[in-house]
Amino acid sequence: MTRDGEPEFLASYDPSRYPRVAVTVDVVLLTVRAGRLAVLLVERKGHPFRGDWALPGGFVEPDDDLDDAARRELKEETGVLVAGATESTHLGHIEQLRSYGTPGRDPRMRVVSVAYVGFTARNEDAVAGSDAADARFWAVDDLAIDGIGSPDGLPLAFDHGQIVADGVERARAKLEYTTLATAFVDEPFTLGELRRVYEAVWGETLHEGNFRRKVLSTPGFVEATGQTAPTDGRPAALYRRGNATRLHPAILRP
Q: pTM of the entire structure?
């Protein structure tokens, strides 16, 4: 509906009266590899921070939807695909994390970044493309990030250390009250594989029996396939994702 006087107002409106702010997207894509929580990073090919490691991302184009821009930048810089709303869930999951707009966070200009966090069980190697010199998953405890990494670990460009820390905390919290952990494993999976996801994300060792009891007593979390997988001991039952999205009761961090 067009309101009286609005076309004239828009015709005379001068956006140049306001400071120009560029918008970017950055993606914290998390997975579990060899029992460790890992994040996808790219080595920057150009300035600023040439040669440093950073989150995949880039500027939002004039006609971009933010969610589509995040998936596009992820694909262009790393070759990794993450599902959209209409795609198969086995490709993973991505959601908005928060926005970052501290003045000076980008030395080029005033830049506001809309950060996303994604979760995937896919373990194929990333392939650098676009303006990335390299792309690979790094264990988060090998990064120079307070609270989750190592003081002598890999430093990240821009404020990406803070963004990764916020993404990890989002993942840790979501494991408590949602079925997110199943996004880190391929189907079918054992309860041992699912437990190791919790241990990697939380950074805590969990009691095997207590974990099994909590998972199996939570309606809709997992469903038995009726099949088993060979192990060093007795065969382990195999499961698939259940129909629940939230956990009742929650599985709380130690």
A: 0.89
Q: Are residues 46 and 127 in the same domain?
A: yes
Q: What share of the chain is helix, strand, coil (3-state, %, to 5)?
A: 30, 30, 45
Q: In which domain, by residue range, is 224 found? A: 175-241
User: In degrees rounded to 5, what are phi and psi of residue 78?
Assistant: -130, -15
The whole-number average pLDDT for the span 37-64 is 94
- The H or E element spanning position 133 is strand 132-139
Neighbours of 120 (CB within 10 A): 21
Residues 29 and 56 sit within 8 Å (Cβ to Cβ): yes
pLDDT of res. 87: 44
Same domain, 152 and 188: no
Half-sphere exposure of residue 45: CA atoms within 13 angstroms, side-chain side: 12
pLDDT per residue as tens digits for the range 111-130: 999 999 988 887 667 889 87
